[in-house]
Amino acid sequence: MSDPTLPLKNRGKLIGMICNEIHDGGEALDNIPASLVKLYESGYWREFEIYNGTVVRHERFIDLITGDLPNGFRTPLAFIDKLMRGTKHEPKWQAIKAEELEPAAKHGGDRAEQARDTLLMSHHDNTEGILRRLKRDGHTEQLAAITAGEMSVNQAAISAGYRKRRASIPLDNVKAAIDVVVKHFGNAEVLADVMRRMGTDA
Q1: Cis peptide leading into 4, omega within 30 of 0?
Q2: CB-based contacts of 10: which residues, under 8 Å, 6+ apart?
Q3: CA angle, 56 as apex, 7 and 9 as ends, to 5°?
Q4: Which residues contact 135 (CB under 8 A, 6 or more apart)?
Q5: What is the largest CA-CA distance in the chain?
Q6: At a CB cut-off of 8 Å and minimum separation 6, what does 132 contact?
C-alpha cells in the first residue's frame, strides 16, 4: 500500500473507502483490522486531500480514527478495540495506542483526566485507560511486551497492579470448579485451606 509518490487526492480516496467500510458495517468490518494497520504503516494518513480539495494533516493516527468527518472517521477507539480483538493485528494496534496516547494525569493533577482514566479502567473492553496509566507510571517493560505481542493489555494491568487476577469457575460441576481453584493456587494450598475449614491440620 505504501507509495511515497501517491498523490494526496488518491490518499484521500483510499482513506475515504476505509471510513465508509467502518460506517457501513456488516461483513466489511472484517477487513478493517488489516486495512487500518496497512494504512498506519503507509503514512498516508499524515497528509491527504479530501473530496472538497482540503488538505488534511494528522500528527497522530488515533486522531484520524476519532476525528470528526470528513477529516477523520468519527469512530470511538473502543469500537476499533473490539474489531481488533483476537486478530493478528491486535498487538500492532495496541502498540500504536501505547505510543500515541498521552500519559494519564499524575495524582493531584487534572481531576477530569483522572476521572476519565478511572472510568476507562472500569470498562474491560476499553484499553485506553490502562495504556495511559502504564505510560504515566513508567511501566516500560509492560508497554514493550504489549508492543512485541508477548503480553495482553489485561495481563499488563495485572502485572502493574491495576487489576487482580480473575478466573471463571463453573457452578454446575464440582470437579471442574475444584480443578480451576487447584490450577491457580496449587494442591498444597487448597488442601491446607480445606483442612483448616474442617478443623484438621494438613
Answers
A1: no
A2: none
A3: 25
A4: 98, 101, 102, 103, 104, 143
A5: 81
A6: 101, 102, 103, 104, 117, 120
The predicted model scores a pTM of 0.58
194 vs 84: which has the higher pLDDT: 84
Cell 494525569 sits on residue: 105
> What cell was used for 36?
487500518
Name the strand (E) or helix (H) holding 21.
helix 8-24
Residues in the chain: 202
Give the C-alpha separation, 119 to 134, whole Å.
15
CA–CA separation, 47 and 141 (whole Å):
32
Residues 150-201 pLDDT 10s: 888 888 888 888 877 777 787 888 888 788 778 777 788 877 877 788 876 5
Q: Exposed (0-12), middle (13-18) or buried (19+): which is 4, by Cβ within 10 Å?
A: exposed
